[in-house]
Amino acid sequence: MTHPPPPSCCSNSRAKRCIPGRGETGCAFRGAKMALQPIADAAHLVHGVASCEVGSWIFRPTASSGAVLHRESFCTQFTERDVVQGGEAKLGRAIDALMERRDPPAVFVYQTCLPAMVGDDIGPVCRAAARRWGRPVVPIEAPGFAGSRPYGTHVAAQALMDHVVGTREPDRCGATDVNLIGEFNLAGELDQVRPLLAQLGIRILSSLSGDGRIGDIAMSHRARAAILLCSQGMVHLAEGMRERYGIPFFHGSFHGIANTSATLRTLAALLADRGGPSDLPRRTEALIDREERRLAPRLAELRGRLAGKRALLLTGGVKSWSIAATLRDVGMTVIGTSAGKASPEDLRQLAALGDVPSFSGWESEDLDALLRSGDVDVVLGGGSRFLALKTGTPWLEINHERDMPITGYGGTLRLLEAVDGAIASPVAAFVHQPAPWDDFVPATAAVIPFGQPLRPVLPSLRNSRHASR
């Protein structure tokens, strides 16, 4: 089993292989599965025990505009017998059965810890299956003990470059074809971006990997430009396509109105420089002006309600700075944002905000004390929900588990309305009040001597309750 070497570019420093067994925010297998599972029409086969597949299925619950094969679970269910006899033959049979029953355009086969430790080599099995079926069967050599989650993401990106990208030519090539890299279509967020680009005549040639299609990814090497929407996820793919196919990319974000406008401007200027329509920047400015004017009245109303409110961001990556900037635009104070999963580019963007404190980790006791102090009006995050609810602090889900799209102009407005609703909800005020039964003292207490029948005492209990009313 071979692993691609970590990239030398400084922006990929977080993708270096860690000490075996060490997992930063997850193992290598988890990182690879989270990066590739959003490809909607491919089959994702886990070569390992069933628990690995059960856990990985919910890592990133992404939406799709059509195919939903990525939401089905496929696993070889490695057993004790396979530990003794090896599971390569079983894996080959599983791939054949998957092809016969589901007929996917490609299969991603994920190596996990136990088969790797007993010596299963999935590479030759996948190559033989690819020859039999005439379509990509991609080995993902990222068992959990190989390193951290960012390293698994790097392995997944390299696998796409080696087995999928550049294997098909598009019917036509346009001067405004772009790739979206690091977009995972959480809660169907691509639907907030596609209309904006369509109004400008920009075609999304491929989305990597949210709502992605194998055929589109195979043609993605013909794009004129790319937007890297998650600096930690799939950055290696963006850099690899720039080096191999000359596709320039830039770091962008569709979280927040200002970020959305800046991303559209940068994309329009880049495409115009590379042979796109010369009037594209002008039309982009007109679109931005129209959208910002449309939202201005509602944003002014929300700014009046949210100005001065204090928010704590317990998220990471691109959201650590883009959501912080969005909240500051309506006058909110961000008292802290988590940067534990931030890439160097994310840290640079965060530093540009100036006065937003950042932290890489927080002990539960300290976080509990902060929330109980009353210095936080709302918490935005994922795993912090139970602590926030326990302390009676308004909380809003903005991580992978959310069912609300928060990108683009419409998504930003939806996010701010949700923040306003969480803060204004009467539930938070009620949970700080004592429970109704805490101060209840019965008017009389009947003592039943040992051995005395209960029946004669019941009328006196009923009378005492009526008297207390």
General description of the model:
α1 crosses α7, α7 packs parallel to α10 and α12 packs parallel to α17. It is built from 19 helices and 13 strands. It is an alpha/beta fold and 469 residues long. The protein folds into 3 domains: 154 residues, Rossmann fold, CATH 3.40.50.1980; 120 residues, Rossmann fold (3-Layer(aba) Sandwich), CATH 3.40.50.12380; 127 residues, 3-Layer(aba) Sandwich (Rossmann fold). α10 links the parallel β7 and β8.
Question: Which characteristics define this entry?
Answer:
469 residues, Rossmann fold, 3 domains, five-stranded parallel β-sheet, four-stranded parallel β-sheet, 13 strands, disordered N terminus, disordered C terminus
Largest beta-sheet details: 5 strands, parallel
Q: Tell me the number of structural domains.
A: 3
* CATH structural class of the largest domain: Alpha Beta
CATH topology annotation of the largest domain: Rossmann fold
Low-confidence stretches: 1-24, 457-469
Tell me the Rg in angstroms.
27 Å
β-strand number: 13
CATH architecture of the largest domain: 3-Layer(aba) Sandwich
Shape: globular
Query: Given the structure, what is the number of helices?
Result: 19
Distance between the termini: 77 Å
CATH superfamily of the largest domain: Nitrogenase molybdenum iron protein domain
Structural class: alpha/beta
Helix content: 40-55%
- Sheet-strand content, in percent, reads 5-15%
Strand line-up in the sheet with most strands: 11-10-9-12-13
